[in-house]
Structures are given as structure tokens and as C-alpha cells.
Amino acid sequence: MQRSFVLAVLAAGGAGAAIHARWVGPYRLQRRVVSVPFPRLPPAFDGFRVLHLSDLHYIPGNRWLERRLAELALQTQADPPDVIALTGDFVEWDEDAGACAALLATLRARHGSFAVLGNHDYGNAFDPEEVPRHRLLHRLGDLVGDPLSRFNGRPPKQEGNRIEAIISALDHAGIQVLRDRAVPIGVHGQRLWIAGVDEPHQRRQCMARAYDGVPVEEPLLLLAHSPDVLEGDFAFSPGLLLAGHTHGGQIRLPLLRPWVTHTRVRLPNYRGLVRTSHGLMHISAGIGATVPLRFRCPPEVTTLVLHPAEAVKVPHEADRWNRTSPPVDATDSLIPPALAVRGRPGVHPSDHGALAPRAGGAAPPPFLR
What we know:
single chain; alpha/beta; six-stranded mixed β-sheet; Purple Acid Phosphatase, chain A, domain 2
């Protein structure tokens, strides 16, 4: 009797976890704010805010993603961050790039939006390393719903996407695609460089071109789609690396490391702020996914607030960097329209700081101190 009861409890728990992973986890958007120590950061950039978005995996008809981006647009229009950094995997098919770029064009930033390309933008079927994964997705289709390759009845393009069409759509939306190049941002006569590399998971990057013209004594923010960028030859370590690609692992069981991250490099963690051999890297868990499954790893939108390295203490415990506020978006039916909060129109009333305060403003929430 006792054994039957235990088995029944375990079965019920497993079923509940599966239901959560399929129908709740992928739709509980977290909005996070993280203070980041940045070496060689000029005083003019103290409090500089970078809104980090990654891995949209946009497909027309994804109403949840369209609504979340519309809400984010209202927030950025009311209180724009300094920069928006988009770290790849915008679409699955190049013909959807225009619709995706139109949504991103509504986001506002004081110094513009910058992007790098992801492996899905090039077309995953074109990547030999991903063929076994696509076969597995087909086999899981009956369990989790139609996998990516069956969405809208469109199979992956065996020849890959027209990448220039995606770049053109982003450029038309006012988003600079940094394909192995760097650009400076000037504030009060001081500069911060933003560089981006081509897709490192498929080994398309050229680090030398990305660093070309960047003075070693000036601060650099480096964008890459995958943490595999760490395999590259760095001219010097940037002040901060931004990446996505891992989706945080999507399924994170208690006490275990993420099972699937699709990276070659090994890291202490695959989401949040992580120490690497080339300084700190922020890995976004992404806002979308190819397979609609997430457990203990919600989608996220993160604002990174830069401060001079000596002004922010880096905790010894790596996980302290990854503590977040509770999820603020559960399901579409639970999300009211964006309302004014604290005198700031367009900010969601349950948002615990999607956009960080300016330098000298209110203190960050306790989980960020």
C-alpha cells in the first residue's frame, strides 16, 4: 500500500512537471535587472543601460511573443535604455525576417539597437552538427506538440536561409548588424565600443576583423550569438561579453546541470552572468525557443546596468548573479495592459524593474545588491 502511494505521488509529480514544462514554463517571462562591473568604463558611462534580448525564433502567428514585444516597446518608448543588444536567432525562415524586424523596430534606445546573427538565422538544416537534433525533434513531436520543422507546414531549407535578406530587414528597421565589426558610442567626449562577431557556433566569426580599429585601452562590449565565441583568438578581453543560444538549458532539473546547451565550451552556468577566461559573460536564456518546453528556466528580458569595475563587488558565489525577481508574466489571460507605474507610463504594474534606474536613482531590488 505504502509503495503504491509513493509511486502514485511520483507519477503525479512527473505529470505535473511535464504539464508545467509544456504549458506554463515557456510563457512565464522574467524581466531582470543586473548590475555589472565593467573594466575601464569611463565615468560618462556609469549607469549605462543595455537591454539584452536573444533567441526570438519568431514565426508569424506567435501571438504570445508579439504581445510581449508590444509591451516591451511601450516600456522602451516611455523610458528608453541606452542600447538594445540583440544576440541572434531572430527567425527560422528568411521570408519571416520582415515581420520580425517590424516588431523590433518599435523598440527604442538612446544610442540605437545592435545585433549579431545566430545559427538559426543561417538555417539550422544547413548545419551538419544539427541534423541529429532535428531527427530527435521529430520523434518528440507527439509528446510536446509539433516541433519547429513542422510549423506552418514548412520544412527547414536544406540550402539554408538567404542571410542577406535577414540583414536587410534588420537594417531597414534601424538595427545595426555587427558582422565582425565594431562601432563606437560617444558620450560627453568619452567612448564605449560595441563589437559583434558572426555566428560562432558554426565557426563563421573572424575575431581579427571584429577587433579592427578598437584601441586596447578603451572599453569594449562584445556581442556573439553563442558562448562558443570563447574558442576564438581575442586581441584583448572585452569589458563584457553578451551571448544567447543556450536558452539556459530550457530544462533544468534540481541539483543537475542543464542536459542540453548546444555549446562546445564548458561553463559553470549557461544563463545569467558567468565568469570566463575572458572576463564576465552574460548569457540570456532567450525569449523564444524552437521546442516549446521550459522547466525552471523561464524566458527572459534583461537590462544590464554598467558600472566601473571598482564600484561593483563581484560575489564569490556565481549563482548570486543569477537570482532574479519572480516571473511577472504567467499566461496571456493574466497580463493586463501596460499601465503607468511610479509616474512612468508604459511600465507593467507587476514589473520589478524591467528597465533599470539611471545612475543616482533608486537602489536596485534586494536580489541584485
